Amino acid sequence: MRSEVTELTPKEQDYARSRLAALAEQFRADGTLRSPQWEQVFRRTWRHPYVPCYYLDHGAGPLISAADEQHRSQWLAAVYRDQSLVTKMVPTPARKAGWYTSSSTMPSLMLTMLQALDLTDGARVLEIGTGSGYQAALLCERLGSAQVLSIDIDPELVELARARLAASGYTPTLSVADGAGGYPEYAPYDRIIATCSVPAIPVTWLEQVTPGGIIMADVRGPLGGTVVRLRVTGDGSATGRFLPRYLSFMIIRPGPETFFPARPQPALPESMNDSISTVDPTLLSRDGHISFITQWHLPEVTLGPAMGADGQPGTQLDAPDGSLAQVWHTPNGNGFLVRQGGPRRLWDRVQEAITFWQHAGRPHYDRFGITVTPTEQYVWYDHPDSNHRWPLPTFRPLDPPA
Ligand SMILES: C[S@@+](CC[C@H](N)C(=O)[O-])C[C@H]1O[C@@H](n2cnc3c(N)ncnc32)[C@H](O)[C@@H]1O
To answer: For the chain, which end, N or C, has fewer CB atoms within 10 Å of the first or last residue's CB respectively?
Structure first.
């Protein structure tokens, strides 16, 4: 089976081949591609059959399609650039442009994770989040289709990926399933790689990976996180470090067209106290390390914008226990004005997190790790037995909104 729209003219093929080669060179030069084997796989695997169209500006812009002559060259150029491309949008009342529910991951990000999987021939891999099918194609090219299983919560995506992969000669096992449960039908796996983020590692994954195997996923909460690589041990637990590079994926969803429902605006606590902070609140959305360390100190907190009575922009943190903090973005002479109320002083906790990170010498992500057992999981600093550890919530997929 061939897809007409993504079939390239000879001239387009030359262009795509040269772009793929240029990307491979770039990735070798910047250290992304360290494995000659993965470099060969990358050079051999076209991306364009899996991304026949994408939405500009991460979903905020119009659809750019291979089928549209006017956009054809723009489409092909984008597909062979190192960028993630939003491939599916669904309507949502909360956002005029809708919300994106799938994308083709940035190639350098994908290669960073695939190499960190330490694959050997014959390994069996479960990919959670089939999406466009491009990463499944890379896995099939590396291991052979029989070794690759891939699931997605969205039936439409799975069927599209199946057709695209088959047209390129790949026949992995694809299925529609909620990745929160792994995929017990074909377990055990040597590797599980998730391309949607999770707030904690589902225990089902632990049960479905062989001892010595690897689980890789973006573990994140509302503030931050990045990709962790866990080695499963013989005693039913798994432990390992975050990758050094910051990587981020869309959140795991409980259904094909369900989202994390917007939390209603929390009521202001009865009394709020003012103080001054030297920490710039915009760091929480600008600095990956700051949001990362703060996430583990405040796992249940949601971050959002605040608007002062005078129109001044601010940052708001709120917790399910009714604690709330607002910090205004424009500094006065001494620092940033903070208003806190409720049972806990959330901004003080942010400051503690940042102080910890600064006193530790501003460590990178890979100085931290996660340990998962069937009964608990936590983030640690430096080594798994460290006293510096922060519990993660037990993984519980969200119920679809009513
Ligand atoms: C970043 S995209 C995947 C990229 C993909 N690997 C590729 O190469 O194009 C994330 C995918 O995760 C899927 N997803 C979200 N929640 C899921 C869930 N609960 N179970 C399985 N897949 C899920 C989305 O439908 C989406 O296709």
So the answer is: C
